[in-house]
Amino acid sequence: MTIPEQTPTQEQPLGQEETLEREVRAVLSDNPAAISKEVRSLTLRALTEGKLDQGAVQKVVRAVVAGATGGADGASDGQLALREALQGLDEALAAAAQATRLTLEEAVGNAGAFSRQTLRRRLDDLSTLESLFIETVSQTASSAAGFTRTTLVDVADHARASGSAVGSAVKEGVTSLGRALAETVSDQVEVTTSVLQKEAALLAGLTSGVLRGIADRLSGSQPPVAAEEEGEGQGGAGAQEPQLRS
Length: 246
Known about the structure:
By secondary structure, the protein is mainly alpha-helical. Helix content is 74%, strand content 0%. The chain has one domain.
């Protein structure tokens, strides 16, 4: 009997979340002083690879937290490494909040380009960014043990009590945009589901583009003059970036 030749099986490529989780885990074995910046960079890259909507952000946050907790066990100082990784995630989410605010400011100022429903939903998404960060860290802590659990609980509690980088960016955006939305965007009688979906996709894509500019600026890959001009074009000359560590 002839035995059919078996072809070697090819390893299936990892999905975006699995790849991100693995990359973050590897970063925690590096110099602790560089962990925060590297995790921030990885997170920003993942957030800009697609359209920046709520579902995409949620997947990225979960992957980063999973990678950080998984890599902490192998770090020379696991507690410090985990804290630095979560700081990087917090800062990346603050940049995402800023990108969302800048995009919404432009959309609100362009009367009639987007429906009130779409802008309101996007503003609601912005308002949940900090709670997404805190809840993901808290949920991960519930199934962790040892210093990992202690660190996660402490980070979540501190964010609730004293705030976070993403929380500060969210608060600023929600306050100013809520007022502007109420004053400048008129009610519409009816907007179809397909229109709402197209508008949401367009806003998410525009936000990703703005976030790429912010990410380039934070990484130092964009000339200061060019970055300054881009910021003025997207959100006005007075737009402020979240205070992130370089």
